[in-house]
Automatic annotation (TrEMBL):
Source organism phylogeny: Bacteria, Bacillati, Bacillota, Clostridia, Neomoorellales
The protein's name: PIN domain protein
Pfam hit, one: PIN
Domain PIN span(s) in chain numbering: 7-124
Organism superkingdom: Bacteria
InterPro entries xrefs: PIN-like_dom_sf, PIN_dom
Regions crossing the membrane: none
Native species: Neomoorella humiferrea
Alphabetical list of CDD domains matching this protein: PIN_VapC-like
Length: 140
């Protein structure tokens, strides 16, 4: 059985959590045994921050518990080599710091990013990485 890799960004995690557009696409991918999903700890931290700010400590902690308990999502740490690569991507402009980790991880793994983030979509042709679009607008 061939395994297909995917990178989740913060947008994908929040879409799944909030049952927003694209949530079913994310759920289908992470529940498929022929697919592996990867999430940078930096993106998990960004999701935690967003939920903490909007819904409080309890909801943010539940997010972390849910993601960490989900064996279908592989959490990726950030040693200096990944930090440096993300900084290189960030220096190109147009992305948040957390987004640059998702993009550099996708490049490293040669895997598409599941996202609805328009800034990532804009950079995809320039850096030649694939996206699976879950946002509201039609991808370019």
């Amino acid at each position: 059985m061939e395994i297909t890799k995917f990178v989740l960004d913060t947008y994908a995690i929040l879409a799944l959590l909030e049952d927003e557009p694209g949530a079913q696409v994310v759920a289908d991918i992470i529940s498929d045994d022929t697919k592996m999903s990867f999430l940078s700890l930096i993106n998990l931290g960004e999701a935690y921050y967003i939920v903490l700010r909007k819904k409080g400590e309890k909801a943010a902690s539940e997010l972390i518990e849910t993601i960490c308990a989900d064996e279908s999502i592989t959490l990726i740490d950030c040693p200096w080599t990944r930090i440096k690569e993300a900084a290189r991507v960030k220096a190109l402009g147009g992305l948040s710091y957390a987004d640059s980790f998702a993009v550099s991880l996708a490049q490293e793994l040669q895997a598409p990013i599941i996202t609805g983030d328009p800034e990532i979509r804009k950079l995809a042709p320039k850096l030649a990485f694939e996206i699976i679009w879950i946002g509201n607008a039609t991808p370019v």
